[in-house]
């Protein structure tokens, strides 16, 4: 009986008595293995953590957390954070830090409000603000790539300059004149089923950037640069142009976030943007541990943003101190960076070239090699 059952599991018996695996059985096993890999905690651990957070805060504060509008509140409140997380995906994939994105966001939002307050039309104000964000990204690219200054230092410096320009444009005042009306309605507060339009900006950008990074040659080359810059350069890839483009995209997407935030709240405050920097990096590094085995990706970044948003929302609903969400996000960033590197090593992708040299050496020593060159060569 047991032997007959085993034969049925393995396949059919041929005319010569040899057991022949059936195609259906092989397909079923392949499908089963694919489902197991898809549902593995290594692939979607953040989803399980997200569910755990929901259960935890649902038990702690059921009356304030387990409400029908909690989902839409989290989506609406953290959609701007999601856009900011998407702004740093491409630079990080290319092995670059862009610490100026928060300041770029603040400048674009403030500039849009200032232009509207001075009588400019809504389309013109939006377009100019987005172009300024793109220009900031290009300037960062020139400083980092052409001048050869480390991206961490360079974008920290440009961010400080951008912050000063933002204060000059706003006069260190909140700008609210003419910011409401059609600008606020159509760009920031228009909603469908209680879901506001910035959520759709986030989802559209997630799809566009995700498809470009994962389904195009340019996107694969960005990943190759991030895994091993020198090997990619030696393969004949125009790494300078690609790295400048990565920072330009970062500035442009940050500008979208700034304009959307100004429209949503109906005013611009010069100090708003930098507060989005830490959550953006936390979500992007945490997102790199999901779905793509150590690769910075848009899908994981958005999921991680909403996970962190759910945690912050739950802490506030539970009556935690106002500083608790900042501690939560900071701890998440530390854990996410470590998990990202572990995930890269397990997948054989090698250390991310944007990490500090001493840290790269530690991971290379543990793995017995530098890693990552195979990815670069394949992409090139």
Can you walk me through this structure?
By secondary structure, this protein is an all-alpha fold. It has a single domain, classed as ABC transporter involved in vitamin B12 uptake, BtuC (Orthogonal Bundle), CATH 1.10.3470. Helix content is 73%, strand content 3%. It has 19 helices and 4 strands. The strands form 2 sheets. A two-stranded antiparallel sheet has the order 1-2. Helix 3 runs parallel beside helix 16, helix 5 (70-87) crosses helix 11 (197-215) and helix 16 (298-317) packs antiparallel against helix 17.
Give the CATH class: Mainly Alpha
Helix coverage percent of residues? over 70%
Can you tell me the number of structural domains?
1
Radius of gyration: 24 Å
Beta-strand segment tally:
4
- Mean pLDDT figure: 82
* Poorly predicted sequence stretches spanning 5 or more consecutive residues: 5-12, 356-380
State which percent range the strand residues make up: under 5%
Distance linking N and C termini = 56 Å
**What general outline do the C-alpha atoms trace?**
globular
Count of helical segments?
Answer: 19
What is the CATH topology descriptor? ABC transporter involved in vitamin B12 uptake, BtuC
In order across it, which strands form the biggest sheet? Answer: 1-2
Largest sheet: 2 strands, antiparallel
CATH architecture: Orthogonal Bundle
**Could you spell the SSE succession in H and E letters?**
HEEHHHHHHHHHEEHHHHHHHHH
């Amino acid at each position: 009986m047991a032997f007959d059952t085993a034969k049925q599991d393995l396949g059919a018996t041929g005319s010569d008595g040899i057991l022949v695996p059936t195609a259906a059985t092989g397909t079923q096993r392949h499908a089963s293995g694919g489902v197991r890999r898809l549902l593995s905690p290594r692939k979607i651990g953040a989803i399980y953590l997200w569910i755990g957070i929901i259960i935890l805060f649902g038990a702690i504060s059921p009356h304030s957390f387990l409400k029908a509008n909690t989902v839409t509140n989290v989506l609406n409140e953290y959609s701007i954070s999601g856009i900011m997380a998407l702004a740093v995906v491409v630079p990080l994939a290319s092995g670059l830090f862009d610490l100026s994105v928060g300041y770029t966001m603040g400048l674009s939002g403030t500039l849009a409000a200032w232009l509207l307050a001075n009588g400019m039309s809504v389309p013109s104000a939006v377009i100019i603000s987005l172009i300024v964000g793109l220009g900031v990204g290009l300037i960062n690219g020139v400083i980092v790539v052409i001048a050869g200054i480390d991206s961490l230092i360079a974008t920290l410096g440009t961010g400080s300059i951008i912050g000063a320009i933002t204060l000059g444009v706003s006069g260190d005042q909140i700008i609210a004149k003419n910011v409401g009306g059609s600008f606020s309605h159509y760009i920031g507060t228009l909603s469908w089923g209680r879901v506001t339009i910035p959520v759709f900006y986030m989802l559209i950008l997630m799809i566009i950037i995700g498809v470009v990074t994962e389904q195009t040659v340019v996107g694969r080359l960005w990943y190759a640069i991030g895994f091993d810059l020198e090997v990619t350069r030696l393969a004949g890839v125009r790494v300078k142009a690609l790295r400048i483009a990565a920072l330009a995209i970062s500035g442009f997407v940050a500008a979208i976030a700034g304009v959307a935030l100004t429209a949503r709240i109906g005013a611009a405050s010069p100090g708003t943007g930098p507060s989005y920097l830490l959550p953006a990096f936390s979500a992007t590094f945490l997102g790199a541990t999901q779905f793509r085995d150590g690769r910075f990706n848009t899908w994981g970044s958005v999921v991680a943003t909403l996970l962190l948003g759910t945690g912050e929302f739950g802490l506030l609903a539970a009556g935690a101190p106002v500083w608790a969400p900042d501690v939560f996000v900071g701890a998440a960033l530390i854990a996410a960076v470590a998990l990202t590197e572990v995930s890269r090593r397990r997948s054989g992708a090698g250390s991310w070239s944007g990490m500090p040299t001493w840290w790269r050496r530690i991971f290379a020593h543990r793995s017995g090699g530098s890693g990552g060159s195979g990815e670069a060569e394949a992409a090139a």
